[in-house]
Design brief:
Layout lengths: L15 H15 L4 E4 L13 H29 L2 E6 L12 H21 L4 E6 L7 H4 L2 H7 L7 H13 L4 E2 L4 H11 L1 H16 L5
Parallel strand pairs: 1-2, 2-3, 3-4
Helix pairs in contact: 1-2, 2-3, 7-8
Length: 214
């Protein structure tokens, strides 16, 4: 924070009180918030058998943190007619995430909320951006283990590259920010031929279960 002239404000995004404290601290330091980056995320592994606590945490951090932040920020943004909400959604929100149902489902929720915000408040000055990278070389990628290594690591990019894509997206007023451009093609296949797309994903799943790549 000192290096970039910022203010460090430790907090907890998985709860209303924590988010209120973060928003309050930001307003104390800055006077007002122009851009909110909803970047906190968790990626618990597992499917329908994942513990209830894992599902709850994914929902709290990946979805409700966005909802609660918007609830705190919208009144002032709408009053002055400007504000930006940058949601880190992940390509999982456009596609899916093999090996982690809580992550895939909650990231779809994050995308749905970002879309709703944009559709509801664009004419009142709110700009919303959904950032949807694939693998990014962070601790979260490292924590995904063998599946993340096979699926994401080969095309993973640095966090600085994602930041550059975000800045470009803000300048160009784009809702979808795709640091991995190929995600647009995958998303198009998913929407226009879902059965074929699901077949391809299942083929990849079977290959992963055998310990290889498709």
């Amino acid at each position: 924070a000192e290096e970039c002239g910022g203010v460090a404000a430790p907090g907890d995004a998985a709860g209303g009180q924590g988010l209120a404290a973060l928003v309050g601290r930001a307003r104390e330091a800055l006077g007002e918030i122009d851009v909110w980056c909803a970047n906190a995320g968790v990626a618990p592994t597992g499917g329908a058998d994942a513990p209830a606590a894992a599902w709850a945490l994914a929902w709290e951090v990946n979805v409700l943190a966005h909802v609660r932040a918007a609830d705190l920020l919208l009144p002032r943004w709408l009053e002055r007619g400007s504000g930006r909400f940058v949601a880190t959604v992940s390509a999982a929100g456009l596609l899916t995430s093999l090996g982690s149902a809580p992550y895939a489902v909650s990231k779809h929720g994050a995308l749905a909320f970002a879309e709703w915000l944009a559709a509801t408040y664009r004419h009142r000055g709110l700009r919303v951006h959904a950032v949807c990278p694939q693998g990014v070389r962070t601790d979260m990628l490292s924590s995904t283990g063998a599946m993340g290594e096979i699926l994401l690591a080969p095309t993973a990019i640095e966090a600085e590259e994602v930041a550059g894509a975000v800045l470009a997206g803000l300048r160009e007023e784009r809702f979808l920010v795709l640091p991995h451009p190929e995600v647009a093609e995958y998303y198009a296949h998913r929407s226009t031929d879902p059965d074929r797309w699901l077949g391809g994903m299942n083929k990849l799943q079977r290959a992963l279960e055998k310990g290889g790549a498709a």
